[in-house]
């Protein structure tokens, strides 16, 4: 059978007709869902109505992946559905998402890990909300919390932990003081790229990161520490024979070529982000809950007793961390995340009550659908 380009394009035109009609039919149902949400008795007023339902989105993504017969790749189909649901959110309500802005515009970063993390927050936000909502760049993690707490933005995206560097301390500290709730989580693999306008052979200078790669592939080159990866990219774009170790976004911003991809020393480098808001959502089939409580240092074994409460309720812990309470000297706030339980469940109210008998400031920080990538489960 000979393939005629004009005939094939006519086929695509006819399919696009059907697709557009179907997409608009779906959009109309989404508008009706929006109206139903506003009418529901749970919604206090229109302003507080939540249009972003992470548990339902997880279900939709699982369904489209399951139904996909190919040849479309599952990732491509999910990217298409990300945008369909993003448009759906925007139809129901104007949504503004606060996120930690990229390096370059701000100078608050004291350590490189934090500076690197910044570059991924917009990517993480786009992964959760797509292209149709509005984004408001913030200077610090505290600003993201404030934008949500004061109602300037309905949602905020903050980095929580990196699989290699550990917890993001400013995020933990803000949870101690803030009233915001965690509504969703998302994981983003972190990759580094070697960017340059020169060829690999010509590169003489590069930012000192990804030591293994630099030592083996670019032996003997001069390593220049930079305050941020975007500063490195900027330098590399101006200087001959220089390269920078950055994320992919910098290639576009500074007009650099990608010489090598995924050069990070640790291949499974992943950062987890939280989507914060004024409320969490209804239970799904698989939720996680993050709690915090303060342990009185004068009570021997108080932390042990606290952890025993989780054990007594057969709860599997997926994260534990601590920070100085800042309210009382030598008191520590413990953060404990447990899997398979929702914050509104009877189990969780028993846990909170039991902890309250010997811990201070017991609080559920958030409850959200479990989005751990398969290999982390
Ligand atoms: O099911 C809903 O609550 C919707 O608003 C619909 C929809 C969708 O388009 O499928 C849109 C946004 C939500 O985050 C989840 C799903």
From TrEMBL:
GO MF terms held by the record: chorismate mutase activity; prephenate dehydratase activity
- Highest taxon above the source species: Eukaryota
Could you name the Gene Ontology cellular component terms for this entry? Answer: cytoplasm
Q: Where is the Prephenate dehydratase domain?
A: 96-278
Pathway where it operates:
Amino-acid biosynthesis; L-phenylalanine biosynthesis; phenylpyruvate from prephenate: step 1/1; Metabolic intermediate biosynthesis; prephenate biosynthesis; prephenate from chorismate: step 1/1
Q: Which reaction does it catalyse?
A: chorismate = prephenate
* Keyword set, alphabetical order: Amino-acid biosynthesis, Aromatic amino acid biosynthesis, Cytoplasm, Isomerase, Lyase, Multifunctional enzyme, Phenylalanine biosynthesis
From the Swiss-Prot or TrEMBL record, state where the protein is found: Cytoplasm
Q: Where is the Chorismate mutase domain?
A: 1-96
Reported EC number(s) for this entry are 4.2.1.51
UniProt domain ACT: residue ranges: 291-369
SMART domains, alphabetized: CM_2
What Pfam families does the entry give?
CM_2, PDT
* GO BP, sorted A to Z: chorismate metabolic process; L-phenylalanine biosynthetic process
Q: Per its UniProt record, what NCBIfam families does this chain match?
A: PRK11898.1
Q: Which PANTHER family match?
A: PREPHENATE DEHYDRATASE P PROTEIN, PREPHENATE DEHYDRATASE-RELATED
Q: What does this protein do?
A: Catalyzes the Claisen rearrangement of chorismate to prephenate and the decarboxylation/dehydration of prephenate to phenylpyruvate.
In Swiss-Prot or TrEMBL terms, this protein is called: Bifunctional chorismate mutase/prephenate dehydratase
The organism of origin for this protein: Linnemannia hyalina
